[in-house]
Design a protein that fits this description.
By secondary structure, the chain is mainly alpha-helical. It contains 7 helices and no strands. It has one domain.
Length: 194
């Protein structure tokens, strides 16, 4: 009897592993994540030499976020086009990211409306870590540590006094380090099947 229970548990675990493997989205690309981190950091370096204009800084941050999203969208689209199955259902796991993105947009609008610009970086980085948690079913499990790091860094930026929206090198460095770590994990996962 005990032997049958162990066999059943093993079969269930094998089925679960197969389901998780089928949900994996290979289109999430190491080069895309690295390019997003580099482009954000370069924009932050440029912003260090700019005047303290909210519109200017916010516009460049929107550019950085848009570039990162574009790099990742192109990578997923490229994967989907090359995928022999080309089944739209394989993109469904990406929808798990939508609640986190909606929350990030809502919090950003609330902070902007209240003039709390200095809290944007911390909120964005913490929410980016939360977004990573919602992707845990279809991305390598080692990204958990990167997501925890983003969450801790974001909360730190929220509670450390003196963080200004016009000094973007710290959040830019956090993003560069986080996206580089993510790119390395994605690359190793693709080559070693972590």
């Amino acid at each position: 009897m005990e032997h049958n229970i162990k066999d059943t548990i093993n079969q269930i675990q094998n089925i679960r592993s197969q389901i998780v493997l089928n949900q994996r989205i290979e289109g999430v690309s190491a080069p895309a994540r690295f390019a997003g981190g580099i482009s954000t950091f370069l924009i932050c370096l440029y912003l260090m030499s700019c005047e303290h204009s909210f519109i200017l800084h916010f516009s460049y941050w929107m550019l950085a976020i848009s570039l990162g999203a574009l790099f990742n969208a192109v990578a997923v689209l490229r994967w989907f086009i090359k995928d022999t199955e080309r089944d739209w259902n394989r993109l469904i796991p990406l929808s798990t990211c939508l609640p986190s993105l909606l929350l990030a947009a809502g919090i950003s609008i609330a902070l902007l409306r209240n003039g709390s610009y200095d809290m944007l970086f911390g909120s964005w980085i913490a929410l980016y870590g939360m977004l990573g948690f919602s992707s845990r079913h279809f991305l390598p499990r080692q990204l958990f540590y990167v997501n925890v790091s983003y969450l801790i860094a974001g909360v730190s930026l929220l509670i450390i006094p003196g963080i200004s929206f016009y000094h973007s090198i710290v959040p830019g460095s956090i993003i560069l380090i986080g996206e580089t770590a993510t790119a390395i994990i994605l690359h190793l996962d693709k080559t070693r099947k972590l």
